[in-house]
TrEMBL record:
Source taxon at top rank: Bacteria
GO molecular function, one term: structural molecule activity
Region forming the signal peptide: 1-24
Entries under InterPro entries matching the protein: Flag_FlgI
Protein name, UniProt field: Flagellar P-ring protein
Native organism taxonomy: Bacteria, Pseudomonadati, Pseudomonadota, Betaproteobacteria, Burkholderiales
Record has Signal as a keyword: yes
Length: 369
């Protein structure tokens, strides 16, 4: 069975340059491979070499404790009761993302953020800081000069612009010391995880994979996870996954969704959203959604059928002297446009959309941010 599958895979490998389907998306944009992910790292460190912009030690005692602990590790023992006055030192948190399949010796970028009341990290140097994962193991070591990009001079140097100076970055500032174990391809199978749960899209992905590589290669476990059989050897598996991620799949149409920003009044819809018949009164603003019935009667003797059509209409009133009538499809986009035309506020939009949703006239998911 493995030999037959490997030969079938190699045959499809030779035919990889197939033209993509129209209006389709790559599988890598629709789903991710289970286990192929980043891992967050963090660590506590010290930035030194600041130009008097470090922590105020009277308000951040942990900075002094960190320096004294570091000096003891370096063999420097301070007399009991010594009061350190540090202005060029800042306690920081160092964060980074460990990419999938990162190997010891590779470098990653880190972000350095002040924990105390340091005025600026510009010009500082991060001392060697171990970066730990959620399991408490050290996966990388960070050190280097902190680059702060929040300051700059205006035209002619007459104007200085200062932004956020308490956060900086170190490009390639951490060296990976430990790799994360991966079970990719265990039991000669992987799990594809769709970015959004959708049973129709999962079925289309399974159909596309089986049409490409043969029946039984992909099996949908639910509306989000798809199990895919892979070749046994690592090199064939890598090539197989490369082709798999490049497959073109036409996703199913997403559920209707309306997003409203309550602060700015911005309304975003992922598709045309129609409204059912209803009427709303909000303060001095009224909204009436109905239907204009039209009957098309055929001429005598034409053997045609009588056709009755209903064209939805939307009428908005803010005062007796200002009326806006929306005819045709009565989509939510037209309603929002008409409400903006008569000067509806973001609070009016919010109240009306919530009322439409509660009344069942808005056939879409409403999300307010």
């Amino acid at each position: 069975m493995r030999t037959k599958f490997s030969l079938l895979f190699l045959a499809w490998l030779l035919l990889a340059g197939v033209a993509p389907f129209a209006q389709a998306e790559r599988l890598k944009d629709l789903a991710s491979i289970g286990g192929v992910r980043q891992n967050q790292l963090s660590g506590y460190g010290i930035v030194v070499g600041l130009d008097g912009t470090g922590d105020q030690t009277t308000q951040t005692p942990f900075t002094v404790q960190s320096i004294m602990s570091m000096l003891r590790q370096k063999g420097v023992n301070l007399p009991a009761g010594t009061q350190l006055q540090l202005k060029n030192v800042a306690a920081v948190m160092v964060t980074a993302s460990l990419p999938a399949f990162a190997q010891p010796g590779q470098t990653i970028d880190v972000t350095v953020s002040s924990m105390g009341n340091a005025k600026s990290l510009r010009g500082g140097t991060l001392l060697m800081t171990p970066l730990q994962g959620a399991d408490g193991q050290v996966y990388a070591m960070a050190q280097g000069n902190v680059l702060v990009g929040g300051a700059g001079a205006g035209a002619g140097g007459a104007q200085v612009q200062v932004n956020q100076l308490a956060v900086g970055r170190i490009s390639a500032g951490a060296t990976v010391e430990r790799e994360v174990a991966s079970n990719l391809g265990a039991d000669n199978q992987i799990r594809l995880e769709l970015n959004t749960t959708d049973f129709a899209t999962a079925a289309r992905v399974v159909e596309a994979i089986n049409d490409k590589f043969g029946p039984g290669i992909a099996t949908a476990l639910d509306g989000r996870v798809i199990r895919v059989r892979t070749p046994s050897s690592s090199d064939q598996r890598v090539a197989f996954l490369g082709i798999l991620e490049g497959l073109e799949v036409s996703p199913a149409q997403a559920a209707a969704k309306v997003i409203l920003n309550a602060r700015t009044g911005s309304v975003v819809m992922n598709q045309a959203v129609s409204l059912e018949t209803c009427a709303i009164s909000h303060g001095n603003l009224s909204v009436t959604i109905g239907a204009d019935t039209q009957v098309s009667q055929p001429a005598p003797g034409s053997r045609g059928a009588t056709v009755v059509t209903q064209n939805p209409t939307v009428e908005l009133k803010k005062d007796p002297g200002k009326v806006v009538l929306v005819k045709g499809g009565a989509s939510l986009a037209e309603v929002v446009k008409a409400m903006n035309a008569i000067g509806a506020t973001p609070q009016d939009l919010l109240a009306i959309l919530q009322a439409l949703k509660a009344a069942g006239s808005l056939r879409a998911e409403l999300e307010i941010i």
